Amino acid sequence: MRVDWAGKGFWQPERDVSFVEFVQEGQNLFGGAFTWPVMVLRRSALEHNLATLAAFCQGYGFGFAPHGKTTMSPQLWQLQLKAGAWGITVATVNQALVCAKFGVPRVLLANQVLDPGPLRWLAEQEFDFSCFVDSLAGVRVLEQVGRPVSVYAELGFAGGRAGCRSKEQLAQVVRAARAAGNVTIKGVAGYEGGLPDAQAATAYVESLKEAVLALAAQGLLDGDVIVTAGGSTYFDVVADGLAGQWLPGHRLKVVLRSGAYLTHDDGFYLEHTPFLRVPHKGSLNAAIEIWAQVTSAPEEGLVIAGMGKRDAPHDEGLPVPLRIRGLDGKVRKVSGAEVVKLNDHHAYVTGVQARPGELICFGISHPCTAFDKWRVIAVVEDDYRVADLLRTYF
């Protein structure tokens, strides 16, 4: 992998250098090898978050298959696997293809797959692959594959994005899958992240548990059963609801699938992290920063920074001004500053005093829509020396 003139945020107009060489040169974010805007990840925050969720899952005896769609960075997936992750979760067959090409040993595709061609290819690969199923139509596609396929029957909720809507429908799908000669039911899946609050998530997790018990009572589950759930907003609720060996006569394994934890943020997840409810069980640090230059201070109380919708997520809140690096290199904190609007390449910032040419460090809200805007991302130490470079595959 190499950095050249096409690397957004990098300034290499005449160079073509490998990632390894670039890092070995001891580059600093403010040393001339970068231009603005640029998104970076702080290594210390990544390592803290990795350790925190690993310890959380170990404390409950759970497996962990973090959602790889958040970053689509095989290098970060490898860090998660080295930290003890049981596998990597993805959302699409193309994302599963990236996993296959980079040697991820176990992949969980957390959706029903209705395209038999890619599903057949994935089923033929030398890795542990499984996907979800929530309908008889999905079972018919699985039968068309003509190869052994492992699946999780998914239970959803009214208005949710996927999943059977009742225990009875779930049992019907499981029976049909078991009748297909090439399908193995590994367990039951759910996703509580779309629910409005912890109370609703608790009720849903209880219904998921009841559905698994009902399947077992009907003899529709094998001896080894995996139950998987857990987004990044209610994984504490999932952990408390599914902890313990509550499935008599079966060897139960619970697998969480949270993804945004790795980088956390300064917006949506700062306000919705489960650790606000269980602070004694850990904390997460924001790892993502976007540095942008002040391009204009056109009127009192308004600063324009050269960062916009092409650079920063805006679906779950606008970027958050954190610090300013002055023209003399000194950094000062900001308080009360706010991004009030984003254009494609401009951020309208109020409540801050900044001069043209100075740099503003922004935190972001919702990492799942941050990484797709950057092909190559620098990981930096706390002094902003480059520690690594990452490639994304969206």
Named CATH architecture of the largest domain: Alpha-Beta Barrel
Strand content: 25-35%
**Percentage of residues assigned to helices:** 25-40%
**Gap between N and C termini, in Å?**
16 Å
DSSP helical segment count: 10
- Overall geometry: elongated
Using the CA coordinates, give the radius of gyration.
23 Å
Low-confidence stretches: none
From the helix content, strand content and strand pairing, which structural class follows?
A: alpha/beta
Say what the CATH topology of the largest domain is: TIM Barrel
How many E-type strands? 20
If you average the pLDDT, what whole number results?
97
Structural domain tally: 2
User: What string gives the helices and strands in order?
Assistant: EEHEHEHEHEHEHEHEHEHEHEEEEEEEEE
CATH homologous superfamily heading of the largest domain:
Alanine racemase
